[in-house]
Amino acid sequence: MTFDLKIDEPHPDHRADGLTQSVLGHDNDRPDGWLKVAGSATYAAEEQADDMLHGFLVRAPKVGAVSCPNLEQVRAMHGVRSVLRDRRMIRNAAQGTANEAPVQGVDQAAYVGQPIALVVADSFEQARHAAQALVVSVEEDDVPVLPDAVEPEEPEDKKTEIGDLDRAMSEAAFRIDAVYTTPSMVSAAMEPHAATAHWDGETLTLRGSLQMLKFNRNELADSVGLDPANVRVLAPYVGGGFGSKLGISADCVAAALAAMELGQPVRVVQHRRNVFEVNTRRSETRQHIRLAADAEGRLTGLGHEALVSNLPDEEFSEPVIQGSHFAYAAANRTLGMKIARIHRSAAGSVRAPGESVGVTAFEVAMDELAQAAGVDPVDLRVRNIPEKDPESGKPFSSHRLEAALRQGADAFGWSHRHATPRQQREGEWWIGTGMAAAFRVNMVIEAEARINLTRDGATVMSDMTDIGTGSYAIFGQIAAELLGLPLDRVEVQLGDTRFPPGSGSGGSFGAASTGTAVWLAGMEIRKQIADRLGCSEAELTLQDGMATYANKRASLRDLLSHEPITGHGHVEPGEAAEKVRQATFGAHFAEVAVSDVTGEVRVRRMLGSFAAGRILNPRTARSQCHGGMTWGIGMALTEELTHDRRDGHAVNRDLAGYHLPVNADVPPFEVHFVEELDDWAGPTQAKGIGELGICGAGASILNAVYNACGARVRDMPATPDRVLAALPS
Amino acid sequence: MRPFDYQRPDTLSGAHGAARDGATFIAGGTNLIDLMKLEVMAPDTLVDISRLGLDRIEPHGDGLHVGATVTNSDLAADLRIRRDYPVLARALLAGASGQLRNKATTGGNLLQRTRCPYFYDTATPCNKRRPGSGCAAFGGEMRNHAVLGTSEHCLALHPSDMAVAMRALDATVELEGADGTRRETALDDFYRLPGDRPDRETTLSAGDLITGVILPAPFGGRQTYRKVRDRASYAFALVSVAATVRMENDLISNVALAFGGIGTRPWRDHDVEDLLTGEAPTTALFEKAGDILMKDAVLREGLEFKDTLVRRLLTATLTEMTQ
Ligand SMILES: Cc1cc2nc3c(=O)[nH]c(=O)nc-3n(C[C@H](O)[C@H](O)[C@H](O)COP(=O)(O)OP(=O)(O)OC[C@H]3O[C@@H](n4cnc5c(N)ncnc54)[C@H](O)[C@@H]3O)c2cc1C
Ligand code: SF4
After folding, report:
1. What is the H or E stretch that residue A232 is in?
2. Does the residue B204 lie in any domain?
3. What Cα–Cα distance (Å) separates residue A174 from each residue in A167, A171, A297, A366?
4. Which residue of B2, B31, B40, B231 is the best one to mutate when testing the A interface, meaning the one whose CB has the most A CBs within 10 A?
5. What CATH code is carried by the domain that includes residue B276?
6. Closest CA to B130 of B145, B139, B119
7. What is the CATH number that goes with domain A44-142+187-278?
8. CA–CA separation, A278 vs A251, rounded Å?
9. Nearest CA to B95 among B265, B210, B237, B193?
10. Does the residue B132 lie in any domain?
11. Which of A1, A425, A462, B207 stands 20 to 30 A from A125 (CA)?
């Protein structure tokens, strides 16, 4: 039986607090952790088959009409089984939740690096060598690759004009008017995108590295022209995604087409250099931010206008201003987006699309305002917290920003800081601290899950993925808590489209969406057990495998000896989104050292303070925050995908050239969770935590750099050359 | 990667015998294999030199002989190196990552190819990869390129940290030709400037095998290696300096300076050292040294910062070492 829930109303009944198994909210191990450490969790490229063939993607070296004059010779090369130039191959990965094929085709390359053929051979080495031998001729098109080279689109529906910002600026006691830029960035997940496709003449089975299987199945089916009913997608383990695996990727479609043509399993692994260009990047941004404030630093106006880019025919645009709609009160507001259609690789969602870069730039501007107005940066934020959503007037579902700021400031020792730059020095190193607020929209996505309860324990099933985030752990905890079972009697099975469709992993909504579906499935089972015991669900206690009601007591083993119970949970977003504004909030604090000689920045410590509703497992939640904060270091200091200015190609497309922070860049982190139960988040009162940690993290570092040495860097990343250039002489 | 033959001889003469036309020596393979995967290098035959007994560090006169296949990790950890040539130990540890250093060898490190991204990208022209095809770096992404020793045909950096320290130490490369004759070449004469043949990077002849590097008698004095990079570890130098300084009566009696991140080869300019020798250390003097070092620098777009950075680094390093 199914427990359906549409989230229309708040859930003030905090049932999780009344349950007694004591696993939910606890710091439990990840059940997949040991498998991953020991190497027994297998990834997409590790799938084995005796007759496996290997495909290698061939990239377009230029933009324009493509032909392959020596295709027949390559086909005849040793070990080569096929050279696919199938028009169903996809131009770039699908956008998240696309649910249909992205732009397809191999005859016209829209960006340098677009896959225009797949060479399939008996071995990987043969396929790669043949792919390198394939001559790709391009009749070059003269296309724009620089965001400034085109007249951008300015969508009306992304425009907000309230009051008169120009006037507010001219009348302001303090004003900031500056431009901030962030470069293209990539997810660079540890596991490269990879797929293994099997075709039995009727059904396509694809083992992929993907985040949102119910959508991915439809995208794959639509791409290759099959009925989704005949397509099964598996992704039980995924080595990181960060948005780059939301939509079906080029390796998946190419592997499927090759398997269908050749009748043998085909594996396609994206070369690390493919990973950097055929999957979606985070668009570069140019952000014009204006702040108008009164004598106390209260905002009277704010402006946030951003230029981003994408390929023609891509619906996504980096929603840079998303957080600025609700972050701060200000009567006069101008927000808007410009989208340049250029021929760099496709832009799409990368961890916290929008706020990651938008909040980061905005929070640097807020620091500039704090400095200009002589107001403490924490106080400035608190002073500008809106009572209600500043644009729609809706109440917030819950708003714990002030608590996050104050508690974080206390834990960090913020009160000891020097308010003006260049006050503390150790040898050649300037020392300083900085902070920023964190904002991230919260969403729920339709999700389903099933729990089978038998004598031996419970099995939770959903096509939800665990991309390293802890889905396996928290779903097990939710089920164990509701069903009163020790964790080792709950098994969680994920990542198979044969299971009920979960939310998929993305937008921080996995734990709250699929987690709620698991909760509902568990509740459904509790009701059925209560029936068997002759009580109501609320009167039932389940703990350590025993069901108790008043003086009745029975073991689940006995209760279930004849008939196992199945519960199905189904959650959908409802009217809540119309009634309230829901978001997660936090605060970042950082201490840095900046070399006065070289402009090198070393982050010495960081503290994040976050409010994201109920924390289902502090360990997995903390890990998410650590990840986000590390990304903040990358955004502030090291990460930049450089595009060749002539043809737009990604120049530094490997892990030696694209500088992710390494261990030596990452200091000790402290993570603090603010107590919060958001009743509008559904029966678990939990919100998303996966992306909050990155939003604004980089700004706390850049603000600390300013506090240390007086260098205000507005173009990210703040590499030594940029810091030196901004250093006051 | 093109199919290739693989041989692993046990003797030097066996190595020379195996290294006929088209054959390439492989040591740690940390650079060569990457280049082969991309078909930037496509040798017919690989001759593995890991079993030739070239993996020892031995006394050599008052100095040391470092075998060509001594790994970067072993060299950096050697007590004599840490005690007498700390600039070298530091430079080695500033390079690559622990895993890479465990494989990378002394000879391979000297001969590693540039990290110019266009050199690795067979879809773009590159005079070093394909002589006469042009240079894609000009007008493209130039931030990680050289400002000294460049030509209109190539401005690729030599990426090694180790070689910079060795140049400051007046190291000598020991070679064995295809016919078995041994000779030595000062590191100063080992690397060529790109000129119009950037594909010819050293004065090695075909079939020459590096058998070792000779470090002269310890220099004494103070030594340091300082590397500025885009992240705290595992990145090539934006600018680096290897410095050895000896003071007598508050005057600089002896100094050697070599630089990474600025030149098409590990950079050393004896005019700079001549200026400093015998002088009292002052900021003005160090700034003048910077002027001399950079007098012929060509600061192409995106590379202007290296001028500032190397001068600041030079002044700060010398200030610290002459205190
Ligand atoms: C991601 C990454 C980061 C790195 N970062 C740094 C860094 O920060 N600083 C730095 O200095 N280096 C860095 N390196 C480069 C590394 O130091 C070199 O790859 C390594 O030193 C090469 O040594 P090898 O023994 O592996 O050489 P191989 O790859 O085996 O050989 C390199 C070349 O030398 C030739 N060769 C090798 N030995 C001999 C010999 N005895 N006689 C004649 N020819 C020979 C080979 O034929 C080949 O052409 C990095 C490398 C990578 C992959
Ligand atoms: S700088 Fe040198 S290595 Fe780089 S593309 Fe030009 S010729 Fe090739």
Report:
1. strand A231-234
2. no
3. 13, 9, 7, 11
4. B231
5. 3.30.390.50
6. B119
7. 3.30.365.10
8. 9
9. B237
10. no
11. B207
Radius of gyration of chain A measured on its C-alpha atoms: 26
CA distance linking residue A489 with residue A487, whole number of Å? 5
Instruction: Examine residue B28 and state whether it is found in any structural domain, yes or no.
Output: yes
pLDDT at A99 over 80: yes
String of b and e for A341-365 (b: at least 16 CB within 10 Å)? bbbbbbbbbbbbbbbbbbbbbbbbb
Q: For domain A2-41+445-575, give the CATH number.
A: 3.30.365.10
**B173 C-beta neighbours (distance < 10 Å), count:** 28
The arrangement of strands across the sheet holding A64-67 comes to A108-109, A64-67, A137-140
Per-residue pLDDT of A264-320, as tens digits, reads 999 999 999 999 999 999 999 999 999 999 999 999 999 999 999 999 999 999 999
User: Is residue B19 over pLDDT 90?
Assistant: no
CB-neighbour burial class of residue A526 (10 A; exposed 0-12, middle 13-18, buried 19+): buried
Q: Given an 8 Å threshold on Cβ–Cβ distance, is B232 in contact with A662?
A: yes
Task: Tell me if chain B has a CB within 8 Å of the CB of A600.
Answer: yes
Which two structure tokens, joined as six digits, stand for A683? Answer: 């029966």
Q: Nearest residue on chain A to B314, judged by CA atoms?
A: A597
User: What are B36-81's pLDDT values in tens digits?
Assistant: 999 999 999 999 999 999 999 999 999 999 999 999 999 999 999 9
Domain total of chain B: 2
Cis bond upstream, residue A236 (ω within 30): no
* CATH architecture group of domain A351-442+582-726: 2-Layer Sandwich (3.30)
Structural contact between residues B111 and B264, judged by C-beta atoms closer than 8 angstroms: no
The SS3 of residue A572 is: strand
From the list A382, A84, A63, the residue with the least C-alpha distance to A260 is A84
Is the CB of residue B228 less than 8 Å away from at least one CB of chain A?
Answer: yes
Pocket lining: B36 vs ligand 1, CB cutoff 6 Å: no
3-class DSSP state for residue A129? helix
Phi, psi torsion values for A116, nearest 5 degrees? -120, 0
For chain B, the farthest-separated pair of C-alpha atoms sits apart, in whole angstroms, at 63
Q: Where are the alpha helices (DSSP H) in chain B?
A: 12-18, 32-37, 72-77, 79-84, 86-93, 98-103, 106-111, 162-168, 270-276, 283-293, 304-321
Closest by Cβ to A129, choosing from B2, B122, B232: B2
What residues contact residue A5 under an 8 Å CB cut-off, 6+ apart? A516, A520, A569, A570, A571, A572, A682, A683
Interchain CB contact of B308 with A (< 8 Å): yes
Instruction: Measure Cα distances from B176 to A142, A153, A261, B209, B210 in Å.
Output: 52, 65, 54, 5, 6
In which residue are the tokens 């005019």 written?
Answer: B271
Q: Whole domain around residue B41: which residue ranges?
A: 5-48
- In a mutagenesis test of the A interface, which of B34, B157, B228, B230 is the best target, namely the one with the most A β-carbons within 10 Å? B230
Using a CB-CB cut-off of 8 Å, the residues of chain B touching A661 are 231
**B275: CB partners within 8 A, 6+ apart:** B285, B288, B289, B292
CA-to-CA distance for A92 and A380, rounded, in angstroms?
43
User: What does the alpha-carbon distance between residue A166 and residue A170 come to, in Å, rounded to a whole number?
Assistant: 6
Which one of B13, B28, B48 terminates a domain?
Answer: B48
How crowded is residue A207: how many other Cβ atoms within 10 Å of its Cβ? 27
- Is the confidence at residue A421, as pLDDT, over 80? yes
Question: Rounded CA gap, A50 and A701, in Å?
Answer: 51
B144 C-beta closer than 6 A to ligand 1: no
Domain annotation covers residue B267: yes
Q: Where in chain A is the domain with CATH 3.30.365.10?
A: 2-41+445-575, 44-142+187-278, 351-442+582-726
Q: Does A719 touch chain B (CB under 8 A)?
A: yes
Closest CA to ligand 2's atom 8:
B126
Q: Whose CA is nearest to atom 2 of ligand 2?
A: B154
